[in-house]
Amino acid sequence: MGRQPPQPVPSAPPDYLFETVLPHVCCITLNETDKIRLLGVPPPLVDPIRNAITSSWGQIQSEQTYFGAHEFKLLGTPWRGQGTDSVTSRTLIVSVLRTMAVNGWNMLQAADVSKKEHGKDALFFETIDPSLGQVMPDEVDMFALSFNSSDKLRIIGNVPVSIVTAVKQAVQTQWPSG
What we know:
- The chain folds into two domains: 23-129, no CATH class; 143-178, no CATH class.
- It is extended.
- It is of the alpha+beta class.
- Helix 1 runs antiparallel to helix 2 (84-102).
- It has helices at residues 46-56, 84-102, 161-174, and strands spanning 25-31, 35-39, 60-66, 69-74, 105-111, 122-127, 144-148, 152-156.
């Protein structure tokens, strides 16, 4: 038997570390006239979301596990959006979105995935890259824009005058009836 030729020496590993951090994804759905379901939302976020609901909407009628999702059944009917509830329900959504942002989650998309007659949106979130640092509560400014009747636009939330001015200017310059 002949002698084996020398084997090549493996190349050295790169002198840098590369770590892939895959984002985590979760979903919050608005259901029927009075429910919020948390799908894939980490358990430590349930309490902050509960606090966001009670501070902006009020009482939670009940909670349960619904096919693996945490479900809040709210007192009243926020998803009907009539009268004063129309402002409060939008404040509730902003409060939940803000809570998610402060806890390191970014909303990717809202979509009506059920296509039911009275279907509501599902809100999809992903984790924010931790290398960007923690999001502080005072860094999260959010508000809601709501179309009411056929000729009203509401700005809901604590918004600076500059935002109100920008919205007015956009309407006056882009809408023929201004």
